[in-house]
Amino acid sequence: MQAFMDKDFLLSTPTARTLYHEVAAKCPIIDYHCHISPREIYEDLRYENITQVWLGGDHYKWRLMRCAGVPEKYITGKETSDYEKFVKWAEVVGKGIGNPLYHWSHLELRNFFGYQGALSAKTADEVWNLCNKKLQSAGYSVRGLIAMSNVDTICTTDDPIDTLEWHQKLAADDTFKTTVLPAWRPDKAMNLEKPEYLDYLAKLSAASGVTIGSFADLKAALSKRMDYFAANNCCLSDHALNYVMYAPAAEEEVEAVFQKRLQGGAVTEAEQAVFKTAFMLFVAGEYHARNWTMQLHYGCRRDNNLTMYKKMGPDTGYDCIDNYAPSSQTAAFLGALEAAGILPQTVLYSLNPNDNEAIDTICGCFQSDEAVSKIQHGSAWWFNDHFKGMTDQLTSLANLGYLAGFVGMLTDSRSFLSYPRHEYFRRILCRLLGQWVEEGMFPNDMDILSEIVRGISYENAKRYFHFAHK
Prior knowledge:
Helix 18 packs across helix 19 (420-438). The two termini are 43 Å apart. The protein is an alpha/beta fold. 49% of the residues lie in helices and 7% in strands. The mean pLDDT is 97. It contains 20 helices and 9 strands.
C-alpha cells in the first residue's frame, strides 16, 4: 500500500515520477485567471489565522460543508468564531474522500505549513495551532505565500470601470518579483437584462468620459477603457457566458433592443441574444486588434437557490452545471469572426464535461499558423478540476487536438493558498503521460516528453499570452 500523499502522490509509473520531479515541479507557475485582490498583494496583507486565509470567500469549501449538514452559522455566520469554523471544516474535510478539496487542502498544508498528517476532527487543534503560528512568522504575508509558490505571473479579474490603481502600484514596485496583470471582464456591460444595468452604464460613462445614449456610444466607451487597460499591460479578456450564442441581426435591430433597455424596458431572451451577439462580435474584434486573448467561460447556471441568493448574493456556492451549450452557435460565432478576419486567440471553457469533445473539434476548425493552438480548450474548470475531470479534459484534447500546445492550469481562485492546484494538475498530467509510455502508446523519449511537460506547465502559457520573461 502506498503511503498517504507522499512525494510520489499520483505518480504511478517510473516515467511519471521522473517527469514530475525532474521537470514539472521545477517550473514556475503562471496563474492566468484568478479572482484574488491586487490591493491585498500590494498591501502585503497578513492573516491572523488559517480560517481567514482558507475559508473566507471560498465557496468550494462552503458548498462541501453544506453537503455535510453543517449549519450556516459555522460557514459564513458573523457570530461564529474563526476557530469554530475551522473545527467544523476539519470535521467535514476529514471525511471528504474522493473530493478534490481533500487533496488540495493537504497539499496546501504540506507545501505552506509543513504538516504531513491528515486533517480531521482529531487533528483540528494541532493543525490550527501549527498554521496560526506559521502565519505570524516571516515570509507568511500575501507576497510571501506567492513567492513561496514560485509564481511568475498572475492575471486578476477586472471590470472595465476599475481604476487599476493597485496594478499600477505593483508595476512600479521593483521589490516584488511576480508580475501582476489586469484581465478585462466586461460582463456587467453586456448583461443588459440585469436590474442594475442602467446604474452600471452611468458608472461606465463616468469612467470613460463617453455619455452612453446608443450602442455606438457603448462601443466607444468600451474601446476607450480597453485602451486604458492596454496601457496598463492587459493582454487577456474573460467572459462569463450562459453559452456562446450567435444570433446576428441588423444594426437597427440591435439599437432598438438597446434603446428599449435604456428606457427602462424589459428585454426578452431573444432580444438578449441579439444584443449579446453584437456585443461579443464587437469586443472580439477589439481584442484581435490589440493582440489580446479572449477567454469564454460558459456552461454554468448561477444562483439557483433564490432564497440563499437574496440573503448572500452571488458566488456563494449555489451554482451548477448547465447542459445547454449548442456547439453549432459556438462554431458559428467563431466562424463569423474568422470570416471577418478578426478572430483573436481564444480559450474555450465549458463547465459541462460532456462538452469536451465538441470543444476540441470546434478548436480544430479554426487553428492557424498565427499561434500554436490559437484556439485552446481551456483547463478543467470549477466543478471539473478534480482527478477525473482533469484526466478527461487532457485525454480529449490529446485525442482530438494537440496536447503539446496546451496552455495548462489556472486556479480560478480567491485564495492565496490555492497554488498547489497547479501541482495537482501537473501530477495528473505526468501520471497520464507516464501511463501511455508504460503501456507502449508513446516512446520513452525523455527529451520529447520533458519538452511537452515543460510546455504545458509553463512555457506554452508564457508564449501564448505574450508574457515577458524576467
